[in-house]
Design goal:
The protein is mostly helical and 70 residues long. It contains two helices and no strands. The protein has helices at 10-13, 44-50. The longest helix is centred in the last third of the chain and has 7 residues, at 44-50. The protein is elongated, with a radius of gyration of 26 Å. The model has no long low-confidence stretch (mean pLDDT 74).
Length: 70
């Protein structure tokens, strides 16, 4: 991606002095992950059926489209 909007070659125009240089100090993103509260996990049989051992992560999945679409 070229951030220089002038018509000159980037080496001679001086735009490189104004643009952030990629390197060790460049921060691309910050991940934020909320803490999951502890709760009693499902029994192994129910956990296998539900796809998770934690009740708070047990979200319903609704199939839409395909041959099961009503």
């Amino acid at each position: 991606m070229n951030l220089c909007d002038c018509k000159h070659a980037p080496a001679s125009c001086g735009c490189g002095d104004k643009l952030p240089a990629p390197g060790p100090g460049l921060q691309l993103a910050i991940a934020t992950v909320p803490m999951q509260p502890w709760e009693t996990p499902y029994e192994p049989g129910k956990a296998l059926k539900q796809g998770t051992i934690f009740p708070c992560l047990d979200k319903p999945f609704f199939l839409v489209g395909g041959e099961n679409h009503a």
